Amino acid sequence: xxxxxxxxxxxxxxxxxxxxxxxxxxxxxxxxxxxxxxxxxxxxxxxxxxxxxxxxxxxxxxxxxxxxxxxxxxxxxxxxxxxxxxxxxxxxxxxxxxxxxxxxxxxxxxxxxxxxxxxxxxxxxxxxxxxxxxxxxxxxxxxxxxxxxxxxxxxxxxxxxxxxxxxxxxxxxxxxxxxxxxxxxxxxxxxxxxxxxxxxxxxxxxxxxxxxxxxxxxxxxxxxxxxxxxxxxxxxxxxxxxxxxxxxxxxxxxxxxxxxxxxxxxxxxxxxxxxxxxxxxxxxxxxxxxxxxxxxxxxxxxxxxxxxxxxxxxxxxxxxxxxxxxxxxxxxxxxxxxxxxxxxxxxxxxxxxxxxxxxxxxxxxxxxxxxxxxxxxxxxxxxxxxxxxxxxxxxxxxxxxxxxxxxxxx
Length: 410
Known about the structure:
By secondary structure, the chain is an alpha/beta fold. The chain folds into two domains: 182 residues, Glycogen Phosphorylase B (Rossmann fold, 3-Layer(aba) Sandwich), CATH 3.40.50.2000; 197 residues, Glycogen Phosphorylase B (Rossmann fold). A six-stranded parallel β-sheet has the order 3-2-1-4-5-6, sandwiched between helices. Strands 10-9-8-11-12-13 form a six-stranded parallel β-sheet. Helix 11 links the parallel strand 9 and strand 10. The longest helix has 18 residues. The radius of gyration is 22 Å and the shape is globular. The two termini are 35 Å apart.
C-alpha cells in the first residue's frame, strides 16, 4: 500500500476514530486496577525497520525491569526479519500485520486485535510517532495501561485521549532515548511522565543473532558470485532514498565518491533493494570500473544485508535502513542527513559520523507532518554536502574504528 494512501487513511479515518474511541473510553465504566508488575507487555512498532534497531535499548530495559513478563511485538510483516535478527522477543510472540494491500491490512488488523485481546495484556507501549492506527490498536487491545506519545500542549499529533500513560514527544531528543521514556512511563508518577530519566549516548549496541554457519554461507555465495570482491577492502554505498526520494544525495556526488574510494584501493559495492536496480546499474555504468560492483537486490533479506555489512570496511549511505543496520556490526559509517535530523535518528554507536547541514528549512520531515515534506525537490540540505567532505569523513571514521567482533551465533 503506497505512502500517500496510508497518510490519507490515517488522517481522514484516524482522526474521527480516535475521537470516537476517546468518547467511548470516557463513557465506559472504570477498568479494574492494572496488574503490576505487568505479566504481559505488547510493544507496537509498526512501520520503520530502522526504529526497531533504535528500540533495542528499550527492549533491554523492559527485560531488566520486568524479568517475569512476556514481551510481544506488533509490527508490519515486512519488518519481521529485523526483529528476528535481534531476537528481541520469542518468534511466537510476534504479531505481524500485512500492509501490502488495503484488503490484507484490514484482514490482518482484525486478526491482530483478536490475538492481543486473547493475551489479556497488562500494558501496551505504542512506539509510533504520528500514526493514529497504532494508538487505536492500543485502545482496542483492552490493556489497562496504554503508553504512547501525546501532544500535551503541542499543536498537531492528535491521537485521542485514551492513552492513559501519555509521554511528551520531544523533537530535540534522540528517538532511542524517547523509547526508553515509554518503558519508564509504566511506573513514573511525574507530569509529564519520566522526569527522572537521563542517559548519555552512546547506548549499548544491539547484537544480531545468526544461525550457525549462516554468515559463512552468505560470504561463500558472495565470493562465488563476485570473485573480484574476495580478499578486498570493501566499501559499500547506498545511494537510494527508498520510499522518500528527497533523502537521496545527488547521483553526480555519488559518482565522485565511488571514484574517490576506488582511487584509495577499495573495492566498491552498490547496495539497495531490487527496486533500486536501475539506480545501481546507472551508477555502476557511470563509474565504469571493474572494481565497482552493483549489488542492488543481491541480499535476499535483512539478515544477509547485515552479514554483508559485517564484511565491509566502510559504509557510505543516505539516511535510511542501512544507516541504522550499521549499528549491528559497527562498520565505519558516513551517513548523510538533510530532510531528517541525526539529532533524532542518527545510528547508535561511535562507529558512525552523520553529515548534516542545518539549513533554515531542515529538517522538513517530522512527526508533525506525516513525513510529508513541503520541499519542491531541490534538497539543498543534501546537495551542498560535497564529495570531498564525505571522502574526508570516511577516512576519519575508518582511522578511528575499533576492531570489530563477529556477530553472535545462535
